[in-house]
Each structure stands twice: as C-alpha cells, then as structure tokens.
Amino acid sequence: MHNTPRIIAALAATATLAFGCAEGQKETRTGGTTTAGGAAVEQQTPEAGIPPEKIEEVQATFRRKSMQVQSCYSDEMQRTSNKKVEGDVMIGMTLKTSGKASDVKVLKTTLNSPNIETCVVDQVKSWSFTELPQQGYFNWTFHFKPAY
C-alpha cells in the first residue's frame, strides 16, 4: 500500500511507444504498444471500417488514457494484496460515428481477474474517441504486470 506512489511514479516515468506486428501475425496493419512501467497496451488486428488517419487518433486515445486502466489493476492489487496478478486483456468494441464506444467486451484474457476485466471495459466505455465518417470495429490489448 505504501508502494502505490512509487508504482505510479514509475509508470509515469517509463512510458514508451513502439510499433510493429507480433511474430507470426499476418501483417495487415502496424500495431502499437505503449508500456507504462508494469502495464502495456497493444493494438492488435485490423481496424474494420476506420480510416488510417482516424486509427492513429484512436490509438492516441488509448495511450493517453492508459493510466485510467492501470488504476483498475493497481486498485485490485491493493484490494486483494495479490502482487502476482499478471496477464493480458484483449477488448473489442464498435466505434460509432459520434466517437462513442459500444459493444465493448473482453475478447480474450490471460489475466483471469473478473474485477479488473470489468473495470477495463467500464473505463473504455466512458471514453470519447475521435468522430468517424462511418462506424468501425477496433481491438486493443492491455498487458498487466507488477512494476517491481
């Protein structure tokens, strides 16, 4: 519990961005990964119906808001005192022309923490994304691990 400021400081201090596709994955579009200390977010799979310039804006929203999702992880670790929770949560969502996300759901998880997964979905549902010329589909994977 006394480590929370140190963890948050480490998260803020070590944010980086890298682009690339996972090994063995069909390269239909470059993905992105943001690592924030112990948490990283990665975009995966093609973005159906979203123009390339808007994809970059959607990715920027995920990178900008990643600390909100990190709080889902930190809060659960404090609540349960389980410092070994680690894994990935892939979400899928429909982005409406208004920039609101709908049908946000967990597509795949190795985290196996319903509380964190629900919190991640709720966070993403509350975000405002860029307006789109047409509705589109988007996937994003969050990577969670302790920062120490």
Tags for this model:
148 residues; alpha+beta; 29% strand; 6-stranded antiparallel β-sheet
Describe the 3D structure.
This protein is α+β, with helices and mostly antiparallel strands. It has one domain (about 5-145). About 35% of the residues lie in helices and about 30% in strands. It is built from 3 helices and 6 strands. Strands 1-2-3-6-4-5 form a 6-stranded antiparallel β-sheet. A hairpin with a 5-residue loop joins strand 4 and strand 5 (about 100-110). The protein is elongated and about 45 Å long. Residues about 1-40 and about 40-45 have low confidence and may be disordered.
Number of helices: 3
SSE sequence, one letter per element:
HEEEHEEHE
State mean pLDDT (0 to 100 scale): 74
| Strands ordered across the widest β-sheet | 1-2-3-6-4-5
Percent of residues in helices: 25-40%
Unreliable sequence segments:
1-39, 41-46
Beta content: 25-35%
Count of domains = 1
Q: What is the radius of gyration computed over CA atoms, rounded to a whole number of angstroms? A: 15 Å
Q: How many strands, which pairing sense, and closed or not: the largest β-sheet?
A: 6 strands, antiparallel
The tally of beta strands, per DSSP, is: 6
Overall outline: elongated
How far the N terminus sits from the C terminus, by CA atoms, comes to 13 Å
Secondary-structure content class = alpha+beta
